[in-house]
Hints:
- By secondary structure, the protein is of the alpha+beta class.
- The protein has helices spanning 4-20, 77-86, 99-107, 117-122, 138-147, 167-190, 198-211, 254-259, 271-285; strands spanning 30-35, 39-42, 58-61, 66-68, 92-96, 128-129, 152-155, 159-164, 194-196, 246-248.
- β7 and β8 form a beta hairpin.
- α2 (77-86) packs parallel to α5 and α3 (99-107) crosses α6 (167-190).
- The chain is elongated and about 95 Å long.
- It starts with a helix and ends with a helix.
- The chain binds zinc ion.
- Residues 28, 95, 97, 134, 158-159 line the site of zinc ion.
Amino acid sequence: MTTEGSLRAEIVEVGRRMYARGYTASNDGNISARLGAERLLMTPKGVCKGFLTPDMMCITDLDGRKLQGEREPSSEMLMHLEVYRQRPDVHAVVHAHPPVATGFAVAGIPLTRAVLAEVLTTLGSVPIAEYATPSTSELPAAVAKYIKAHDGMLLANHGALTVGADLFSAYFKMETIEHFARISLVARLLGRENLIAREEVDRLQGLRGTYGIQAPAPLCDDGTSAPTVDASCQVVEAPIGGGRRLVPDMPEAPTRLAASPDDEAEIRLTYRELSALIEEAVRSLR
Ligand SMILES: [Zn+2]
């Protein structure tokens, strides 16, 4: 059983790690955790998360009324309250602006491709909640669409949000999202991504039980369909493998053209090589 004192100390530690890893700058980000059934412990407004002390936290009820604390609760409290309302299983919420993941959020590119087995088993997919003005009621409304089915999401042109059954599981998901974003960025800079085939993704989902990981929602049947009103399943972009466990993406990538051995394979020729082939063919016709 987590005591109030140990939970305050954990929030301090998570804030310190977030700031040390560059997930927040200045006073950005916020952290909260359930304190029993009726109350929340939350970081205060206007404090750098790298310099929190246990006494700084606010205690609020589930409607956001402050019950204890000298400071005012986080400016993003409404977003945290929305998560706790919708997810009784969630005991902690972490919000930060990790720069690579936030870059994807700014570019409007969700982290929904099946590229890393461990991310598929721990987080599933990471969608982007629509843009909302920070600290207003728009933000909880944007988050509400995805939070039932996802433990982590990007916030368009803003940052990322993760939740968990305890504080460190919520925080580690933030680390996973940023790590995933960094790897995705490198792969895209290198010019291609091999995607994990749908059959293998299904197999990985089946292994979640072995690792004791509970998914908030299953994967959508059609991995490419976008959620409509409320996302009730996770969109993961994973093509049918047809026997292959990895499927090359980006058909225009030169490496694919050179590697495919089947009859449908494309080849690349220089203009000089093509001219020589045509000349040869014409000569043989004469
Ligand atoms: Zn923020």
